[in-house]
Amino acid sequence: GDVLATFADIDELTQAVGYKPVTSIEEGLHKFVQWYREYYKV
């Protein structure tokens, strides 16, 4: 069947380069919607 949920495993990236996201999904979506509306004038 279809995969119902997925997520990215960034453990190797975190270990390799020290990257760790600090933006929550809620904040990121809000910022994206703001950008989209401004960019496309909607």
Observed structural traits:
mainly alpha; 2 helices
Structural Rg: 15 Å
> What percent of residues are in strands?
under 5%
Low-pLDDT residue intervals, each spanning 5 or more residues: none
Q: Distance between the terminal alpha carbons, to the nearest Å?
A: 37 Å
Written as H for each helix and E for each strand, in order along the chain, the element string is HH
Largest sheet: none
Summed up, the domain count is 1
- How many H/I helices? 2
Detailed description of the structure:
This protein is mainly alpha-helical and 42 residues long. It has one domain (11-40). 55% of the residues lie in helices and 0% in strands. The chain has 2 helices and no strands. The protein is flat. The N and C termini lie far apart (37 Å).
Secondary-structure topology with pairs:
Elements: H1 11-17, H2 25-40
Describe the structure concisely for a colleague.
With 42 residues, the protein is mainly alpha-helical.
